[in-house]
Design goal:
The protein is 38% helix and 15% strand. The protein is an alpha/beta fold. The chain has one domain: 3-Layer(aba) Sandwich (Rossmann fold), CATH 3.40.50. Helix 5 links the parallel strand 6 and strand 7. Helix 1 packs across helix 9. The radius of gyration is 18 Å and the shape is globular. The two termini are 26 Å apart.
Length: 289
Amino acid sequence: MIGKTIGIISIKGGVGKTTTVANLGAVLAKEFNKKILLIDANFSGANLGLQFGIIQPEHTINEVLKNNYPIENAIIQYDENLDILPATLLYTKINPFLLKKKIRGLNKEYDLILIDSSPNLNDEILSTMIASDALLVVTSTDHTTLSCTMHAVKIAKEKKTPIIGLIINGMRNKSFELTIEEIEEAAKVPVLAVLPDDTTILEALSQTKPASIYAPKIEVAYEYKKLAAALIKEDFKDLRLKTLIKTKLLRQIPKQEINRTIFKDGITEGKFEPEVPNSRNEVSRKKKE
């Protein structure tokens, strides 16, 4: 099976895009035993490597794009299932549109490739869109970020790269925040994950470890596991008591859970075809079919 390449984008810094790439990749590798490659395509502001303690890599994607050595030389094996292709912290002028060409063929070696894009609307983010089979867009619950998210979605659609869904990061469940439904309605894209605000993320960063590995029992880690399972079309059972009470007794199924079920069950082999669910009844209909 040839692996897919998913670009994770936003056009506003500070929303947690790089942290999402690191955690999602780590979960896929450790919890689901998938062979994963993470690529830092934020060429002018690289920091994906820092999430794993990679501070001064000997070889980088920047030099690969300048044809200084083959891409295999720049790939770092972090653990058995997780490889990282870092970028340099010292920016040098490159042609980012060579990214697709340079990573061609790597998908035969991996179950999934995740690309961390630039947060700026420039050639760098466009190179991620072009090199990816599909995209995830990271956003937050404020109007400013939502407007940036809507613009990112618009540009991605113009480039004809399918958008799998949105990841809402830093949710605090406050009345002043935009709701999942409001964000979906504005962006016209389903929300596949809602990551609650948690200072453990910062604590994990200080230890140069993804939070999903550093503290695997926190709510954020479970949300990453559920999203990872949906992306690879596998089931993940959340057997925590509080989850069972909400879903089984109170019948409280989060919107993102419904979206993930529809996405996982509705996806066709070789294609990403996300659907925006209209109701919980649609989930039941899908399962019956």
